[in-house]
Amino acid sequence: xxxxxxxxxxxxxxxxxxxxxxxxxxxxxxxxxxxxxxxxxxxxxxxxxxxxxxxxxxxxxxxxxxxxxxxxxxxxxxxxxxxxxxxxxxxxxxxxxxxxxxxxxxxxxxxxxxxxxxxxxxxxxxxxxxxxxxxxxxxxxxxxxxxxxxxxxxxxxxxxxxxxxxxxxxxxxxxxxxxxxxxxxxxxxxxxxxxxxxxxxxxxxxxxxxxxxxxxxxxxxxxxxxxxxxxxxxxxxxxxxxxxxxxxxxxxxxxxxxxxxxxxxxxxxxxxxxxxxxxxxxxxxxxxxxxxxxxxxxxxxxxxxxxxxxxxxxxxxxxxxxxxxxxxxxxxxxxxxxxxxxxxxxxxxxxxxxxxxxxxxxxxxxxxxxxxxxxxxxxxxxxxxxxxxxxxxxxxxxxxxxxxxxxxxxxxxxxxxxxxxxxxxxxxxxxxxxxxxxxxxxxxxxxxxxxxxxxxxxxxxxxxxxxxxxxxxxxxxxxxxxxxxxxxxxxxxxxxxxxxxxxxxxxx
Length: 508
Description:
The protein is α+β, with helices and mostly antiparallel strands. The protein has nine helices and 32 strands. The protein folds into four domains: 193 residues, no CATH class; 94 residues, Golgi alpha-mannosidase II (Immunoglobulin-like, Sandwich), CATH 2.60.40.1180; 71 residues, beta-galactosidase, domain 3; 131 residues, no CATH class.
């Protein structure tokens, strides 16, 4: 016997003119059973066709059913939500399928397939097999975290990687350390949280996933916003999320663990929470019950706290998004009820109130600067960027210094993540439309984005976008944008959005 770890196959049926549905199913059941009897620890990768066999067949899979419940090539699946990131398009196509498997077919998490990243296309628009450089650069740096987290939430037992940045040596060796750390962290996270992953369940729709422990008290919420517009998502903490009421004494806390790490607020069973989700974002929250407090816990903002000189509470490392103000009460849970006389936050003394073991700050905190969230929307056709945003792009180019070619930058929206792009977000856009743009009365090229690297085809069209990298170069100056485009039916135009932005954090 060979020392292989698994088998993979595509198309789970034989081409036999006399076949029946039952004979095809029964034949594959026999093949799988014999393989498992011979190699009980074998992992099986089941591809196209397996998804039609149903949940009772998947019991004997010893692996997972077909990824995406369809073909995996980007030329074969639709763009459900407009995006300039191919990894996000693939993830948003995967999530409804995994929702269907989990709720409609009662599939266990062990048999639900993942699809991390994306595949480069196989076929050109005319159906031929195009010649492409096998070392093509195609890693979607800014879309990858969304894809990775969508897989952790909806298919955490089978983290199938369809793209790694290794085909091009520069792409491989220059992959930012921060990306590698994120990647490694979440893969290791799944090893540590198998109980929660096995209990993973979507609620309300495919973009909300609850991963709770069996106790129903500790766990995680993975929330995805596939749209570019920010969304207030109201979620009730109840049994629909596999959450139970706790009778223990202690503190039940909600914290954000991605993209930031901070305790947000105290929570209760049946409480309805308002989550503000950035456009095209993945955000992960943790529910944790703390019965014993061994050191001060800062709630409402990021930061750490300690007691100096017996009665001075020092709070350090408090950061927030530029241009925002705290919305949750800020307090510190102390290990005991020791009296505090002074609170110092980031070196500044603060007014506070002490209620037993809680040190409550009276005033909200403000974080200076311009508010530019992920996928920031442009209002009134006026573009103003901050020096911190421009610095973010400079630093990204420094940590990912790939010498992009003109073709890559002009033809592929998800490459060159150091660029400031503006996405003209339209539902079901048509690449035949004539769209022109001017900034401060100077004509700017309008690019067409496609979800494939080779032949451009209307079915693969993402939408129109502008590359503002060499246009919007100065901070805190208004750039006026004018567009000429066809008249659209109501609801199709979603807005104008700046791309490739990460949260801009500043000190309070």
